[in-house]
Amino acid sequence: MQSLTRRMALKLFALGTTFFGFKKTTALTAAESESAAPVIGRWKKTNDRVWLGEEFWANPMEDWRIIDGAAECLSTGGSRNIQLLTHQLTNPKASFTMSVHVSQVEVKQQDGGVGFRIGVKSDINEYRSNCFAKSGIKAGVVNGKLILGNKEQKLKQPVDLKNCVLTVIGKPEGEKYSLTLMVSGSESDKPLDTISHTFPPQAVLGNVAVVSNFDPRFKRMIGARYRFSDWSVSGDAFTVSPEHEFGPILWSMYSLSDSRSKDGFVMKISALTGPLGEKDNKDIELQIEQDGKWKSLGTAPLDTDAWTATFRIANWNEKEKTPFKLIYKEQHSDGSESIAERTGIIRANPTGRPLKLGALTCQKDYGFPYEPVANNLLKVDPDLLYFSGDQLYEDHGGFGLIRDPAEPAILNYLRKYYMHGMAFGEAMRDRPTICIPDDHDVFQGNIWGEGGKKMVEGTTSSNGGYREPARMVNVVHKTCAGHHPDYYDPTPCLQNISVYYGDMVYGDVGFAILGDRQFKSGPEHVETGSGRADHVTDPNFDTSKLDKPGLELLGDRQEKFLEHWCDDWRGHTIKVLFSQTVFAGVATHHGGYDGYLKADLDCGSWPQTARNRAVRIIRKGMPLHINGDQHLTTLSQYGADEQRDSCWSFCTPAISAGYPRWWRPDEVGMEHENRPKHGLPNTGEYIDGFGNKVYVYAVGNPEPASKKNRYDLAHQKGSGFGLVLIDPKEKTYTLHSYRFLVDATDGKASNEFPGWPVTIHQKENGGETKLIS
Ligand SMILES: [Fe+2]
């Protein structure tokens, strides 16, 4: 096939004007003919499996398989496609050739066609974001017609769609760019038919993809489905970027913690691969560099649900930075083998100096791949990353949500989660990562976990329990937190759903990691009077009625853990508490600018008695509480018995804020006392919608959304990230809340939300000292 395609390409170029009506004949240069038609990927010798290979992004992954050496679409739905990650059309002054062998597998009601999309690009024409763009020039066969952009012509002779080759040739033509599509049988290089058209050069720039059923409106049971093989791509119009490859080890995440046991420092690392096949190798090897030599630390098996392999290495030498390699040896169906590596650095334990923490939350995919945030992280070089949840949303990357059964639901989840790795894989390479799942990660709009109970009825935003199969929930936990330091008490909760709360000692700092919704009581235990189980909208509603005896926030197990943790000062002198959300109701408006809400049962201010119990427990350990979830950055201090008698809370900005929230208490007449000296609006001591005490020191309210460009929009919506310098010597935390579209290293005051940066002393988290006023 490879040589056939190349021959055809040469012939087509040579034919020039006479065959295609080109105005000018462009002879193929020596370089072009040399590089003509290399087949991308290795489908021919890949074992049957879901994951198509590191050169590709399949839309959606769960609808594609490698079967018998070709990439086959399992869905007859519309616009199923495979994007090429490694080749982008960037130079309209040069030519390109692309061909693919196609084979129709079945047609349901109507054939939605087959072929290429050329010039697939998002508003920012960046290769990862382009993978989800709906644009591009169609070039293929649909319903007996050749289609090229908006031009179509009836096929002159029948074409066997079960076995044919589509070839596109692009070349500059004056001010325009010409494309020629040719269809031929697989056994002969004689074109059966061709169509040519010219386009503005800009139109061809971007990604290229192969498509099964062009029409995105085709539902699953309507269209046809196709197999693709021998996809070849060549020409100087392409920029080839092998660094865009994603896999077989997609990314890795690690943690390093002083176990304060015979195990010493324990390093744990997970490698994540795409879903592999039954016949594929399922072991990952870990090597580290010591004294200039690579040394194997053995292999770990891939979990065949989560596709993670996790190593736990006790008595790690935390004093040295240690280069590592994760190695995957892929055995092919022809007996050959290829070896892929993911390299990185395990940092030395950052002791004797302040620890720099990057704190992040909530990735709504309109802002994917969040480059301004990801690049700022690389620039500011934190010692530790913390993702506090909503690494994805249910609609991430399009193509729908699969809730049941577990197996396809898992693939649906993994595909969405992989976008997290695509965006932040570089940042996670060389520094420890703590990553906890929140509601959207388990496909729920809200979550009140009820200790793992199965959700019996209602929508995912209005009832307690887990909607998804426990097996899928456990994959979420494993892919996010499988590499965390050993959990405090790993006994699973109901339905055998795993728990992940525990602690970490890193860089003279003690961290507690909570799942603050996993044991929380559901809203069906109370009546909000709003018709919506989670929202109180009536400003006169008496929310004290929502505080019933026996309702849980953190749950008994996590409360006991926190009591222990607050008394445990081994190996550290300053503490940080990680959880998903803030233990106060610091949003007055939700959804729309005027969407007033008195109280939201999904925040950590409810249930009140359990919230106050938690706030009283943690003040003993004086941790700074760092959380996310809200899409609204706030800096506040909890009060249980009195205002400001417990910890400070830093709710970090969303990486890319979706559903907007505002804290505008002044506007709705909420009373305040002791406004901070800076005099910023909406700050001071408040009683929140649930009657809880909270001192709000700073807030980063968003603007209503209007911008078109994804990054401008994310910036406008109050997105960004948190950076915290934790100084164990000075016993201080210096907090930065950075906006989205900034250079966090250029020192401009406008980089941060109003009120930041702020330095808090450890003792202020105990509630006794109030240095900040
Ligand atoms: Fe969120």
From TrEMBL:
Gene3D superfamilies: PhoD-like phosphatase. Residues 523-542 are annotated as: Disordered. InterPro entries: Metallo-depent_PP-like, PhoD-like_MPP, PhoD-like_sf, Phospholipid_Metab_Enz. It comes from the Bacteria. Residues 361-660 form the PhoD-like phosphatase metallophosphatase domain. Residues 523-537 have a biased composition (Basic and acidic residues). PANTHER family: ALKALINE PHOSPHATASE FAMILY PROTEIN (AFU_ORTHOLOGUE AFUA_5G03860) (PTHR43606:SF2), PHOSPHATASE, PUTATIVE (AFU_ORTHOLOGUE AFUA_6G08710)-RELATED (PTHR43606). This is Twin-arginine translocation pathway signal. It comes from Gimesia benthica.
